Amino acid sequence: MAASRIVIENCAIATVDANDTEYASGYVVVADNLIESVGAGSAPAGLENVVRRVDATGHLLTPGLVNTHHHFYQWITRGLATDHNLFNWLVALYPIWARIDEPMVRAAARGSLAMMARGGVTTAVDHHYVYPRGSGDLTGAIIGAASETGVRFTLARGSMDRGQSDGGLPPDFAVESLEDALAATEATVDAYHDASFDAMTQIAVAPCSPFSVSTELMRQGAELARRKGVRLHTHGSETVEEEQFCKELFGMGPTDYFESTGWLGADVWMAHCVHMNDSDIAAFARTGTGVAHCPSSNARLAAGIARVPDMLKAGVPVGLGVDGTASNESGELHTELRNALLINRLGAHRESALNARQALRLGTYGGAQVLGRADRIGSVETGKLADLVLWKLDTLAHSAIADPVVALVFGAAAPVTLSLVNGRTVVEDNHLTTVDEDAIARSTRTEAQRLARIAAAG
Q: CA 198, 202, 207 angle in degrees (round to 5)?
């Protein structure tokens, strides 16, 4: 059967390939779910079975954004504990999160995904680790929401087995036993992980963090992931308090602790990595361990400034993450492009820390790297999957900025005229085509109110 083709032309293109190839005016041809060709000027003549032709004058085409760290369930607890550091924020919110159930998680996942997709995200990760007893099928709710929205998705199946009675922060009824966590994680991999080239759903093994997880869960989780051939994800080196906790409990800092439990490697990525010394960065570079940089959340929780320029210079794979919307109320990734650039310029490297093209690379190819999918997504190249975003830059918001990449990264959030995921339209003229945004807003509001009432009742 002949391939159906979409032709996008007359736009600026930032391919984010190895050479940072750009075209002031170019075209992309999509055949079914793959990029068939990309180049300068007009699309080739005589193409067959063209089902759509887009005149993209005034636009910039980029790879779809890749969000490497998120907590979807937090959508229904936005705007709380706004003046807390990480540990105090967790203490304030865990008693509320411990009361989530399947309808709440479904609504929150739909809200999180819709906000990201509308803002140019084509691949997303949800690190979900709160599984209260009797809460229903939370995994099915999250994966169902991602499928409905049409975003390429990785569920980082999280877990916690260190409750308050064992010195952890979450209530005991919100954590799992070691055995249950491992069994549920393996069952999730078996049921949902797709290893194919164009997979829409993948699973990672993702115990929450050193201060909510036993050493045995970390160690056996790593063994499970490698036995199943899936990736590993957790939080690491987010705050000074975490470093102190690890030294007091394990007699070593977070990076050494992760290495001792099998948690450094090219199949691992960590969220945050704010407090990394030279030795830590060298260990990540040596092992190929990736980082999900979450600048807005790190600022919101006063965690600090991650040493992203030093990581990149050392060869550490780095992508961007929204983090949960209880610590990043905007919930979309364009903010992270801009804040990664701006916040890192407050650090030691000042104005030479990052530029616009490095920020765009973090949000596209860098994210694909840390998810182990850089051969498939993250750049606009022939043979890669058609995950593409067309940004409208000819309005007042970006007028008089000649460089389209600078306009996208430094400027206000650009409207998304078209977003394709796997060759399928997900956003058209700045509106989702796959789901009803107004209905999602109503359901998330209802579930947030219900959660608040349940939490208040104790």
A: 155
